[in-house]
Amino acid sequence: MMGLKCWFQYYMSARRDPGTLRSASKDDTYYDFEELLTKFEPQDLCPECKLIRTPRSRHCAICNVCVERYDHHCTWINNCVGLRNHAVYLFFLFYVWVLTVLIPCIGMDTLGRNMHYDDSPLWFFCIGICHSRPLWMFVDLVDLFVATAFFFPATILFYIHCKNFCLGRTTHERFSKASQRIENYDQLIEEDYADYESEQVERIKS
């Protein structure tokens, strides 16, 4: 059941539109891109998509589209993570993390007991594996190795996206160099303004 939920969230993350920005339709007023350059700042326009970008949108070089509230392009789902599929992507990471915890627990419990294939209510799905103890032990060990190998990356990735959700920010906004430069610039402006206010207060007191 957990695997089905994980697969469903994976399918929704991969197939759902992440929030692609669309150019004006035929019924809307059409503006030439060169005309837009005279009315907007260059950073507010996307030359590839030839449209006006929203403040939190970014152009994905892989999908060749602008995505609203762009987080990142995920190679595992072969899709961008944006405004419309960020929630299902977070659920997908949650179910992946739960599976990486459950599979080793179930595998170790199975290896620690001398189970017979008749003990399982789903023994008819074994297709010959359960009839051979060395074979299903080998399968259990492979499952343990794969789940353990993915546990730490899945934990780190799930933690990062949970923190992004709590902060109300995207991965691109937190870790891109451009965003860090903007944050440093805003911090300098705030510090300079605070110094200016303190100087004015001291002048008034004196």
Give structural attributes:
206 residues, mainly alpha, two-stranded antiparallel sheet, 6 strands
Distance between the termini: 73 Å
Spans where pLDDT lies below 50 across 5 or more residues: 182-186
**What does the main sheet amount to?**
2 strands, antiparallel
Q: What portion of residues is helical? A: 55-70%
Number of helices: 6
Shape: elongated
Description:
With 206 residues, the protein is mainly alpha-helical. The chain is 57% helix and 8% strand. It contains six helices and six strands, in the order H-H-E-E-E-E-E-E-H-H-H-H. The chain has helices at 2-15, 33-39, 86-112, 133-167, 171-175, 177-205, and strands at residues 45-46, 51-52, 58-60, 65-67, 72-74, 79-81. A two-stranded antiparallel ribbon has the order 1-2. A two-stranded antiparallel ribbon has the order 3-4. It has a two-stranded antiparallel ribbon with strand order 5-6.
Summarize the structure.
The protein has 206 residues and is mostly helical. It has helices at 2-15, 33-39, 86-112, 133-167, 171-175, 177-205; strands at 45-46, 51-52, 58-60, 65-67, 72-74, 79-81.
